[in-house]
Design goal:
Elements: E1 4-6, E2 40-42, H1 51-54, H2 59-67, E3 78-82, E4 84-86, E5 89-91, H3 94-102, E6 106-110, H4 116-123, E7 128-131, H5 155-170, E8 175-178, H6 180-188, E9 192-194, H7 197-200, H8 203-211, E10 239-243, H9 248-253, E11 257-260, E12 267-270, E13 275-280, E14 286-291, E15 297-300, H10 312-334, E16 338-342, H11 365-370, E17 375-381, H12 402-419, E18 424-426, H13 430-438, E19 442-449, H14 459-467, E20 469-473, H15 497-509, E21 512-514, H16 520-529, E22 535-536, H17 553-561, E23 565-568, H18 572-575, H19 583-597, E24 602-604, H20 623-632, H21 637-657
Length: about 650
């Protein structure tokens, strides 16, 4: 029948039949394997075929149309859709992929395969992910025993989709979960799913949600459950969902409520720490959740693929997020991404594994690869002893002193590189950084945090230069023999006489002078003494967060005038004085620094594993989120390249050339 699509109805007499409309195969009752007669539902015009075009069977003519211009097709984000499995067949309702096409994406079906090689290679080639609807998840994956009200499960899908959800999350891939897909997101990422709505969501539970999490957007509460598994045709709306006003659904649909369809007897009961509920029905059942981490993750309990034009905005949102993610990936393939400060060696006493995805550290090969980060500067951090302490009391390793400790840290870094030489290499200069990227290797750059390592002996400056140290932070939290600290007692009134000699020797040997942690007096002294530009590897703006450790606008202007750079950092106490900091605060500090100094003098020094890391950019796997934020703010590729290390490497090159 022209313009009509035949589908199976959701109504069957068998009580175990699943009503979640994922694929034609899922419409067969798993118990009695019956199929009812099929009604017809008109498709939308965009889903109809052109009869005249279908009559043209001239393949060469069609190819000539493709070959007539270049490029052959416009670039579109690739959207992976998890497919259903039944009776040896992998299938998916056409409504899913047609909505993706109408939204401007390129759909690809992901079969339910639990091979890590297949999943990771799939994720490396998609820009967005849709977790589709279907049967119940096996509650054993959530550490629960089955309820008597549990319906049929799809063992073929569960593990592959739980794996792909977690691994996609690690890679910052935008995700839209639909019905079962929303529940998969919850189980994979720390939430909980109620095996049956009527069983779990008692009136007291629902009222608690309505008067708690939902009180700001649910206009009224119905003490009686509404029907959540409709008998009506799937494209018909049968219930109202209400949105939290500042949520993604409210922005996407430009309103605070929406009429939707409903095909679920389960629901997410606990969103977990990574999500928050942002939609509910009048009876207090959660109907949507979104990321709490400023990430493009959204789960909805209804089926927008059946809602035609009314459901299209969700797919347009996902395709838009996927396009930005694809743009960020392309930039990372071209641009060197360098973090100028991390303290991962502080965890070496715990025998952490750089070649594993080690939960104890924020920077490792897995996370750097997931976040598409090219290079990190690992520093040997030396704690400043108080007057009544010795250095050996402050560190976990048995060493003779600060220089010996720094050397031990560098030895351990070199051992890491040697053990993983196929994937990572040391870099002493910009040329080696770019060469490592071209070879497909990550780079580790060496730095020292606290000039205490020099041990009052200028010969040690040359020693560390020979080891490949690229910068030395003159002090840390406390004055030392070189200069006063931002958290010191003004011992020298700035840089000491010995400190002047240290800076001059650093200039001679090609080591950058880093004034993060330095007192304001030390900063200006160093700026005057150094004959090469100085840097601040991890410092924020005092105008936005008034703490001694941050830089004033006048300091930043003076730094820029001398050609130096200051990199914003992710320690929450340097981003804001009250409340929880996030990636948005980091962007605010970056934009302020650009306003004061200009685009040629800024960058990022995360301070990962030294208490750095905030919501939205909490470890190296989330580094690409920084690029996404830059793209959203319309920074050009040239400017992003400068921010991601170009400015820093300009100074490094100048310092090393003048040695």
């Amino acid at each position: 029948m022209a313009g009509m699509l035949r589908v199976e109805p959701t109504r069957l007499t068998c009580p175990t039949f699943q009503t979640c409309p994922t694929s034609l195969t899922s419409l067969t009752c798993p118990t009695c394997l019956t199929r009812p007669t099929s009604p017809t539902i008109p498709t939308t015009p965009s889903h109809q075929s052109n009869p005249k075009a279908m009559q043209n069977f001239d393949l060469q003519a069609r190819l000539q149309n493709i070959y007539a211009s270049f490029p052959q097709a416009k670039r579109q984000p690739v959207i992976g859709l998890t497919a259903n499995f039944r009776d040896g067949s992998v299938m998916l309702m056409d409504r899913y992929y047609r909505q993706v096409v109408d939204a401007g994406g390129t759909p690809v079906l992901i079969p339910p395969v639990d091979s890590v090689d297949v999943i990771v290679n799939t994720l490396n080639n998609i820009d967005g992910l849709i977790l589709t609807g279907g049967a119940d998840l096996n509650p054993l994956w959530a550490g629960e025993e089955p309820s008597p009200r549990l319906h049929s499960v799809n063992a073929e899908r569960d593990l592959p989709e739980l794996l792909i959800t977690q691994l996609a999350y690690n890679r910052q891939i935008p995700i839209l979960g639909i019905c079962r897909g929303m529940q998969t997101m919850a189980v994979a990422l720390g939430g909980k799913v109620a095996q049956d709505i009527e069983e779990h969501f008692t009136e007291d539970v629902r009222r608690g949600l309505a008067e708690g999490e939902f009180k700001h957007f649910l206009p009224r509460f119905s003490d009686k459950l509404i029907q959540h598994s409709q008998d009506a045709q799937r494209h018909l709306a049968t219930q109202t969902v209400y949105f939290e006003p500042n949520s993604l659904p409210a922005q996407i649909f430009e309103g605070t409520s929406l009429h939707v369809n409903s095909f679920h007897h389960q629901a997410v009961s606990h969103a977990g720490s990574k999500f928050r509920f942002v939609a509910a029905t009048a009876d207090g059942i959660p109907e949507a959740m979104e990321s709490t981490e400023h990430k493009p993750l959204l789960g909805v309990q209804w089926h927008p693929e059946w809602m035609e034009e009314q459901g299209l905005p969700l797919f347009q949102w996902l395709v838009g997020q996927a396009q930005t993610f694809a743009d960020a990936k392309r930039l990372h393939a071209k641009v060197l991404t360098l973090d100028t400060h991390c303290d991962t060696p502080m965890f070496f006493p715990l025998n952490v594994r750089f070649d594993q995805r080690d939960p104890r550290i924020l920077v490792d090969l897995h996370k750097m690869s997931e976040g598409r980060q090219d290079a990190t500067t690992m520093v040997a951090y030396l704690p400043q002893p108080k007057p009544n302490e010795t250095f050996r009391q402050k560190v976990a390793f048995d060493v003779t002193g600060p220089r010996n400790y720094a050397d031990l840290i560098f030895d351990k870094i070199e051992n890491i590189v040697t053990a993983n030489s196929q994937y990572v290499a040391l870099a002493r200069n910009p040329q080696q950084l770019y060469a490592n990227k071209a070879a497909g290797k990550k780079s580790i750059v060496l730095g020292i945090e606290n000039g205490l390592a020099i041990e009052n002996d200028l010969a040690n400056v040359s020693h560390f230069a020979q080891r490949g140290v690229t910068y030395i932070t003159l002090c840390h939290n406390g004055d030392n023999d070189i200069c006063d600290s931002a958290r010191g007692t003004a011992t020298h009134g700035g840089v000491s006489d010995f400190g002047r000699c240290v800076i001059e020797e650093m200039n001679r040997t090609g080591i950058m002078v880093d004034l993060s942690h330095g007192a304001e007096s030390s900063f200006y002294d160093a700026l005057e003494i150094s004959r090469t530009p100085i840097v601040c590897s991890h410092s924020n703006c005092k105008a936005l967060c008034d703490v001694p450790r941050n830089l004033t606008d006048n300091q930043m202007r003076a730094l820029a005038q001398k050609g130096g750079v200051a990199h914003v950092t992710l320690y929450h106490g340097f981003l804001r004085t009250q409340g929880e900091a996030s990636i948005l605060d980091a962007m605010a500090h970056l934009e302020h620094a650009i306003k004061v100094m200009g685009i040629d003098h800024v960058g990022l020094g995360t301070d990962f594993d030294g208490d750095g890391g905030v919501c939205g950019i909490a470890n190296s796997s989330e580094i690409i989120n920084f690029t996404i934020q830059l793209l959203r703010r319309r920074f050009s590729e040239q400017d992003i390249e400068k921010i991601w290390g170009g400015n820093w490497l300009r100074v490094m090159k100048e310092v090393q050339l003048k040695r």
